[in-house]
Amino acid sequence: MTNKLITPLFCAAAAAAAGYYVLFYAHFAVTITVILIAMAALCLFRVLSSLNALQARKLRIPAFCAAAFAAGLVLGICAANAGHNEIKLGISQDKITAVQGVLLEDPRLLSGGNVMASISLRKCFGSSIRENVRVSSSGKITVFFPRGSAEKLRGFGRGTEIFTEGTLRSTERGLSISAQSLHIIKPASAIERMRTGIRLNLISRFEGKIWGGLALALLVGIRDNLDENITLMYREAGLSYILALSGMHLAIIAAIIAFLLKKPLGFKAAAIAGAVIISLYCLFVGPMPSLVRSAIMYLLGILTILYALPKKSMLILSLSFLIQIIITPSQGNTISFILSYLALIGILITSRQLNSLLAGKVPNFILQPFSMSFGAFTATAGICSFTFGTIAPVGIIASLAVIPLTTVFMTGSIIWLVLDLFSLSFILSYPLSWIYRLMEITASLSGNIPGISANPAVVLSLSILLILTITVLEQRRRVSLARLQPFPY
Predict the structure, then answer these.
(1) pTM attached to this predicted model
(2) pLDDT, tens digit, for every residue of 69-85?
């Protein structure tokens, strides 16, 4: 590997992204042309490197990059094909009256009391002029259950096989069914039922606390009891990402694990034990794209501690992307997946350059979180503008207060759970309420500052221009420092 950004692994990840998001939807001739160009570049480098030994050493890395790029393109296209949700109903859509399938996620409570969940189709039922029809089906669809099914579904989680009657309809996001009834065909596995039991226990323990809904959302991603006003305030303040489990939340949990295990087990043993705990935590919470990305990077980070991988952030990010689109190819199409990787690229590149550029001019305790928030914002602004219609730059400043408060709140909530086992949780109830109110006020004040509604292309262009400006200024600073000669003694 090389210390530069352009490495074979980075080229493979970049090519896989191009194959996944661009070439999969492009004309077949365009795809083949790009792959052939990459292969031609590889052949050219191999021919040139055969001329002499010196030339071979110079072209070794470019040849590896060309090979990795070609392989990445193929991988990205294959992953996009594997992640494509192809629905096979077996009969005409307008004839379907009922479906049977397995819950792919825990049912989510919506405003108004309705429940939503994704299911993996097993069978479709319909009626024709002569007889009732039952056919095997496949694919993933969304089911909206009536309010009366909420309590019944609450006791059943991911992995439960259900039968529901209803009306199938097409939407912009794919097929969905408005259910009119609910029947449990087969309970989930014993492990999944145990997981659901733990989940319900957590919900009941936090129930009745004004801050309980936020604690559940931040700790285990359960947003059923989260106040809608909090969700709205965070969205208007550009802080919605804080409510979605991601690297920030996993970092807090990992830090607590390291604090508890480092001294009794030692550094490496504590890291390995932490990896096991993090893996179990992700299995409990569910396959959320941003959380899966964070978990994979955490596990790769363990390999760097064990000297199995170089300690290079961009290498780990590239490898994480390749692993994730291989093991969960369908997640690559989610906005959470895209924003998660773009935000981290912004943190690793733009924020580091900004931090270096402003070092000594801004206090470090302000500069570090500001540069990270700024880097993530600029990298994701174009996608956010396209997806949500507006962007909220105030979130860069608001995060300086809300993220530390969130860290304290999450840590306090975990300690509260432990104290609750001994009926001592009242000690932290008031402090947690106070921190919750402080987070609520901060988000509310920030949300009063209007966001920016602009053409996504304009937002993307300005973001790229801003990133390039920071890069140029940082390069000039480095060149100026390199020209300085040491003072002669």
Answers:
(1) 0.87
(2) 888 888 888 898 888 87
